[in-house]
């Protein structure tokens, strides 16, 4: 069993494992739509000491939340020993919808409270004023339905604006894409989280598997899931990422770890505020991911990976 590390999530008072479980995979997007499979994944997480589960209303249009709620009930897990984080999408952020969406999430999760309610992305299409949804979330905290507020995929400027709307609460968690080859978060989000005593949940910490070296250039043509349209798997980008993946595999072999453990541990070593939330499609992947805790990659190897990752130039202009 992995040596589990725990951390406080910002100033929320919530204590979570340094590696969480992302559950976007409980949806047609990733293919885990059978409850029994999902339950075994959740069970493996708890058995490995992983107590942070990140989900969202939009993962399978509620299916992920439903599976998590059923699994917690069926496994007899002590609710006080787990941290559930979910998200309201940007188009459900008018004042009344925030309450309605939260109530629906509570029902699907079969719980009386949500530990971390995050805004999944800003209301880019509905133009809901920032203070409208932030004050709704603050009211839900005061009513006891939410423990802490988080923001996912928000630029730092909008995080600042959102925090200014709150009278007595604060934002404790920010969530952004952050992995070995997608380092944009280190420009603003990571320094901001460190300065403001926030936790940064790193989504896509394995870069959808791109940095693990599991796929050849020839494999790209046969991809037919969410990876097929991701710029990471465009030949111009993936050819460069394979250079990083080769070093990852070399270090994994030398250190007696797996490539996933090397990549996740690299993130843990980057900053104490970083909490990766990798997904898993089977219990074995859960245990593997949890094995990234309890040790540290040698400093020289950390820098070797970092310098190599910084040397590649990825583009999102793929057509």
Task: Describe the model.
The structure is a single chain. This protein is of the alpha/beta class and 319 residues long. 39% of the residues lie in helices and 14% in strands. It has 10 helices and 10 strands. The chain has an 8-stranded parallel sheet with strand order 3-4-5-6-7-8-9-10. A two-stranded antiparallel sheet has the order 1-2. Helix 3 (95-109) crosses helix 4. The termini are far apart.
Q: Could you outline the blueprint of secondary structure elements for this entry?
A:
Elements: E1 6-8, E2 15-17, E3 21-22, H1 35-47, E4 52-54, H2 63-75, E5 83-88, H3 95-109, E6 114-119, H4 130-142, E7 146-152, H5 156-164, E8 171-177, H6 189-195, E9 199-203, H7 235-255, H8 259-270, E10 274-276, H9 283-290, H10 299-311
Parallel strand pairs: 3-4, 4-5, 5-6, 6-7, 7-8, 8-9, 9-10
Antiparallel strand pairs: 1-2
Short description:
The protein is an alpha/beta fold and 319 residues long. The chain contains ten helices and ten strands.
The number of domains is 1
Using the alpha-carbon principal axes, give the shape: globular
Termini gap = 45 Å
Determine the CATH superfamily. NADP-dependent oxidoreductase domain
Give the strand order, joined by hyphens, for the main sheet.
3-4-5-6-7-8-9-10
Order of SSEs: EEEHEHEHEHEHEHEHHEHH
Instruction: Predict the CATH topology.
Output: TIM Barrel
Radius of gyration computed on alpha carbons:
19 Å
Mean pLDDT rating: 96
